[in-house]
């Protein structure tokens, strides 16, 4: 059975052309693919976004537009391949994992480190893997449907992917595999208590979500941070959830943000390990300030999950629960 696959081309390195100031996104991805890799699309339809973007310039508005478009087109296609730039590809993959949880829509996200038109490009191989993966998901049981990142021969859970290399073809890795040697299986588990989450409306207010990376001495200038408290904050802690909490400046900051209504989620700066505030005394202050322990979540998963929860007006309690295997 031939599956109906839709390729959503947002831009990124894979389809770029050389411009006067460097590589830039270029249109006509279907024609480019057919010229360089005849037969690769195998009937998959390409829908191009406008304007095309370098993923460095793509944010939540693009994540949510993709989520809305995939839902709107789901009745016409068996699966979707999202073409995205690699710099923030793991953010969009995580966001789509949460947005589409429980919908049963197969999605593969891919891109390239080298443009298709350049010698030695990985674009054709990555696109081929994504098309093969999303077709296999569509042919398989619904429990295996979800969002995957397809890159350099790897199929990675969408909410566990991280870009670890700036130039290497093997740039994307599974954070769970880095943790225990085993890739985490894909899952279509829905958010707690819901068959699926509603789409984020185009007119929905955009919440302010910030990232705070702790470092030795941060308390010396903590009082000057976040004069206007953000609605959400990802706190990147040391190790298993510690920080320089003996410094009164950092503790004052956390309590000021909590009292200002900021929802805070902690993740580890380490690639291996999970947040557990009860392990060390230096971590207890985060729990006292109301910071939510993010478990094994990556920075990308935590930020996009928090952003989505705030966009939909979900309670803070759901952030401590596992939605799609990200924790």
Automatic annotation (TrEMBL):
<dbReference type="InterPro" id="IPR006034">
    <property type="entry name" value="Asparaginase/glutaminase-like"/>
</dbReference>
<feature type="domain" description="Asparaginase/glutaminase C-terminal">
    <location>
        <begin position="209"/>
        <end position="316"/>
    </location>
</feature>
<dbReference type="Pfam" id="PF17763">
    <property type="entry name" value="Asparaginase_C"/>
</dbReference>
<feature type="binding site">
    <location>
        <position position="55"/>
    </location>
    <ligand>
        <name>substrate</name>
    </ligand>
</feature>
<dbReference type="InterPro" id="IPR027473">
    <property type="entry name" value="L-asparaginase_C"/>
</dbReference>
<dbReference type="GO" id="GO:0005829">
    <property type="term" value="C:cytosol"/>
</dbReference>
<keyword id="KW-0378">Hydrolase</keyword>
<protein>
    <submittedName>
        <fullName>L-asparaginase</fullName>
        <ecNumber>3.5.1.1</ecNumber>
    </submittedName>
</protein>
<dbReference type="InterPro" id="IPR040919">
    <property type="entry name" value="Asparaginase_C"/>
</dbReference>
<dbReference type="InterPro" id="IPR036152">
    <property type="entry name" value="Asp/glu_Ase-like_sf"/>
</dbReference>
<dbReference type="InterPro" id="IPR020827">
    <property type="entry name" value="Asparaginase/glutaminase_AS1"/>
</dbReference>
<feature type="binding site">
    <location>
        <begin position="86"/>
        <end position="87"/>
    </location>
    <ligand>
        <name>substrate</name>
    </ligand>
</feature>
<dbReference type="GO" id="GO:0004067">
    <property type="term" value="F:asparaginase activity"/>
</dbReference>
<dbReference type="Pfam" id="PF00710">
    <property type="entry name" value="Asparaginase"/>
</dbReference>
<feature type="domain" description="L-asparaginase N-terminal">
    <location>
        <begin position="4"/>
        <end position="174"/>
    </location>
</feature>
<comment type="similarity">
    <text>Belongs to the asparaginase 1 family.</text>
</comment>
<dbReference type="GO" id="GO:0006520">
    <property type="term" value="P:amino acid metabolic process"/>
</dbReference>
<dbReference type="InterPro" id="IPR037152">
    <property type="entry name" value="L-asparaginase_N_sf"/>
</dbReference>
<dbReference type="InterPro" id="IPR027474">
    <property type="entry name" value="L-asparaginase_N"/>
</dbReference>
<feature type="active site" description="O-isoaspartyl threonine intermediate">
    <location>
        <position position="13"/>
    </location>
</feature>
<feature type="active site">
    <location>
        <position position="13"/>
    </location>
</feature>
<dbReference type="InterPro" id="IPR041725">
    <property type="entry name" value="L-asparaginase_I"/>
</dbReference>
């Amino acid at each position: 059975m031939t599956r109906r696959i839709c390729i959503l081309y947002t831009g990124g390195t894979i389809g770029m052309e050389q411009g006067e100031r460097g590589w830039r996104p270029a249109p006509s991805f279907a024609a480019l693919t057919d010229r360089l890799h005849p037969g690769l699309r195998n009937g998959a339809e390409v829908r191009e976004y406008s304007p095309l973007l370098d993923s460095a310039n793509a944010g939540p508005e693009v994540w949510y537009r993709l989520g809305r478009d995939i839902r709107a087109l789901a009745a016409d296609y068996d699966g979707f391949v999202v073409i995205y730039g690699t710099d923030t590809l793991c953010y969009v993959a995580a966001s789509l994992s949460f947005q589409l949880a429980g919908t049963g829509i197969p999605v593969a996200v891919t891109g390239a480190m080298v443009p298709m038109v350049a010698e030695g490009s990985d674009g054709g191989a990555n696109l081929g893997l994504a098309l093969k993966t999303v077709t296999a998901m569509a042919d398989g049981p619904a429990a295996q449907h979800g969002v995957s990142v397809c890159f350099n021969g790897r199929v990675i859970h969408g909410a566990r992917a991280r870009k670890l290399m700036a130039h290497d073809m093997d740039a994307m890795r599974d954070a769970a595999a880095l943790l225990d040697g085993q890739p985490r299986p894909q899952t279509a588990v829905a958010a707690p208590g819901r068959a699926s989450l509603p789409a984020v409306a185009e007119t929905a207010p955009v919440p302010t979500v910030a990232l705070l990376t702790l470092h030795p001495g941060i308390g010396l200038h903590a009082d000057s941070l976040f004069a206007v408290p953000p609605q959400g904050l990802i706190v990147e802690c040391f190790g298993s959830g510690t920080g320089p909490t003996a410094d009164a400046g950092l503790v004052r900051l956390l309590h000021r943000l909590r009292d200002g209504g900021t929802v805070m989620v902690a993740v580890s700066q380490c690639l291996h390990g999970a947040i557990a505030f009860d392990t060390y005394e230096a971590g207890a202050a985060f729990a006292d300030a109301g910071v939510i322990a993010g478990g094994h979540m990556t920075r990308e998963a935590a930020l996009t999950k928090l952003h989505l929860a705030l966009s939909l007006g979900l309670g803070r309690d759901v952030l401590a629960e596992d939605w799609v295997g990200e924790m």
